[in-house]
């Protein structure tokens, strides 16, 4: 959607009290016999001139998106031209100023898409720096750069630029007006606003952290907003339907900077609180209660429950790891052993679900667990098999047994693949398992992989997690393979 601003922003008072200075109009591009048209072919220069004419016309009619497009095309033809860069910079400034002072309620009647005001001001600053490098003895680049820095709320840096520009032209009215503006804003920035609930999230009732302002004009913590949207795509306050997602919705940079600057201690506490949710700790693991998983497995998950959607978002901001566990049928509670899995690929879907690819890593024993925001967190102890000492007969026997089991496993898989030629799903499973086969120099990991080749009951897999004798696990894996090869199942 092209942005059209009427009347011109430079003559319009705004809620922020800041008016752009020195960009009421743009500079006309010289015709061939007035400028440097002879440095390129006449046809190319004529096309460049037409683009600048159309860009200036769009700017004067406040069709700023179109003006930027024309100026950018002209810049591709003649990079580093002072007039092209200055005019494009002015268009970026006008758009940023308009968006920065647009009331949130206006989005209900005329929503906008595209870059935010901070990004536009940053692009204007880049163009202003380029112009300054090309035209240091002119006051124009100082005016452009000062406007951009004020829009970015970098008032002290803007003052330095203004003073440098006043050395070039002490009577520059735009720079003198900008100096008064920066002095006013600098005084305001040193006065901390009173802490009121206006800076609180209406969901968690705490100071806003990573705030997002919705199209209906309400601000919430990012995590709070999407946690409520897991149960319905409406604003938690006014119930307006929201068409936003975590992938496309950006944090309100200006509001975040205001909060972080004026309430640094409280904001730091909120950050620590959020970090504890996304990175619970070395011995703490969020749990996905579904099934018993063994190390050396790779599979896919479809996450649709609101509590687990929240958990996945937090995991993806942290170390991308969680525990998978089952409800023990003998006790009716969470089993005492689980397996850590790592999310290797996460695809957020438009309806809020997540499609995950995960790989199982290592097992752990659950010491205790508790509920947090609907899902469970566990304090765990990482478990490893008890190995014979290096160089002993028992250790050599274990390695020899592992190598023999690996040979048998390869033969078994070859026979199983031949037998599964008509079953594409089973064949794909066997090929995937073959690719995950670990080195025989790690007998414990190999023993788990051996046990994944056959489909075992959850109770049998849970027993395999509890066993700390690698030889015993290899023996069971070989027995399971032999039983499946014979077409029967151990009871």
- Tell me the series of helices and strands, N- to C-terminal: HHHHHHHHEEHHHEEHEEEEHHHHH
CATH topology of the largest domain: the name is: Serine Threonine Protein Phosphatase 5, Tetratricopeptide repeat
What coarse outline follows from CA principal-axis ratios?
elongated
Supply Rg. Answer: 32 Å
- Please state the average pLDDT score: 84
Largest sheet: 5 strands, mixed, barrel
Number of strands: 8
Walkthrough of the structure:
The protein has 17 helices and eight strands. The chain is of the alpha+beta class and 491 residues long. The protein folds into four domains: 9-189, Serine Threonine Protein Phosphatase 5, Tetratricopeptide repeat; 197-276, Zinc/RING finger domain, C3HC4 (zinc finger) (Herpes Virus-1), CATH 3.30.40; 283-382, Roll (Archaeosine Trna-guanine Transglycosylase, Chain: A, domain 4), CATH 2.30.130; 393-485, no CATH class. Helix 5 (117-134) runs antiparallel to helix 6 (140-151), helix 7 (155-168) packs antiparallel against helix 8 and helix 13 packs parallel to helix 15 (443-452). The N and C termini lie far apart (67 Å).
Task: Summarize the SSE layout with pairings.
Elements: H1 42-60, H2 64-77, H3 82-100, H4 106-109, H5 117-134, H6 140-151, H7 155-168, H8 173-189, E1 211-213, E2 219-221, H9 222-229, H10 253-262, H11 264-278, E3 284-289, E4 298-303, H12 306-317, E5 321-325, E6 337-348, E7 354-372, E8 375-382, H13 393-419, H14 424-435, H15 443-452, H16 458-466, H17 470-485
Parallel strand pairs: 3-5
Antiparallel strand pairs: 1-2, 3-8, 4-7, 5-6, 6-7, 7-8
